[in-house]
Amino acid sequence: MSSEIIVLSLSAAAIAFVHTVLGPDHYLPFIAMSKARAWGVRKTLRITLICGLGHLAGSVVLGIVGILLGVQLASLEWLEGMRGHLAAWLMVGFGLAYTVWGLRQAYRNRPHTHWHHHGGMTHAHVHSHHNEHAHVHDKPGHSRSLTPWIIFVIFVLGPCEPLIPLLMYPAALESLSGVLIVTGIFGVVTVLTMLMVVALALTGFETLKFKRFERFGHAMAGSAILACGLAVAFLGL
Questions:
Q1: 40 lies in which domain range?
Q2: How, if at all, do strands 121-127 and 112-118 pair?
Q3: Three-state DSSP class for residue 118
Q4: How confident is the model at residue 122 (pLDDT cuts 50, 70, 90)?
Q5: Structural contact between residues 30 and 202, judged by C-beta atoms closer than 8 angstroms
Q6: Rounded Cα distance, 46 and 26, in Å
Q7: CB of 233 within 8 A of CB of 81?
């Protein structure tokens, strides 16, 4: 392995870690949806893994095709930018729609008073249907939710911005095996970082109780995804 490939490999690991940690869209949607839809840790990590691989696949395929065809770097960067804008606005649209749906669910599941009459005595208790209706779509025997697939499509469209211009092209100047090594390191570190951040966040949330805000879980999840989409669209995070 040449010294250039070693340097690029180390750079790939560092860039992948920093890029993932500084990009909340790489992990916040999974954390938010996990809490809102009562996904278990294993299910959340499985969805994160699949979406992470999809996130990488689009850019890797595009970069390899560009290298093989000799496409100019500027053309690929323009295409990656278009993919990034599309993914950001899809995330905004999904987050907004999910927020509205979540607010509607919160309103329907608001606490209300029931009056009971027993032998001339009247009493009341506050009641909520949240526990009866929440997450019914994720329970065994019910239709599967489309939410993970929607997130997966958004992640497939989302580019790995540093991968092609900073790593794949310089590695291609050395050898094809160098491209595979550098790309593989970038991918592994990116996915492992996503899984690590999601796992740590879910572990931390286990110690926190949000009983008073449980019925707003879907709305808060949608708002988090909406904020991620807006941050990507306008701030380039």
A1: 27-108+150-235
A2: antiparallel
A3: strand
A4: low
A5: no
A6: 14
A7: no
Helix, strand, coil percentages in the chain from 3-state DSSP, rounded to 5: 75, 5, 20
Q: Is residue 3 part of a domain?
A: no
pTM above 0.85, yes or no: no
25-34, pLDDT tens digit by residue?
A: 899 999 999 9
Q: Is the per-residue pLDDT at 125 higher than 70?
A: no
Assess if residue 46 is contained within a domain: yes
Number of domains in the chain: 1
Helix (H) or strand (E) holding 4: helix 3-22
First to last CA, the chain: 33
Instruction: Please determine, for residue 131, whether its predicted confidence score (pLDDT) is greater than 50.
Output: no
Task: Look at residues 21, 13, 22 and name the one whose alpha carbon lies nearest to residue 237.
Answer: 22
Greatest C-alpha distance within the chain: 90
The single-letter code of the amino acid at 162 is P
User: Is pLDDT of 207 > 90?
Assistant: no
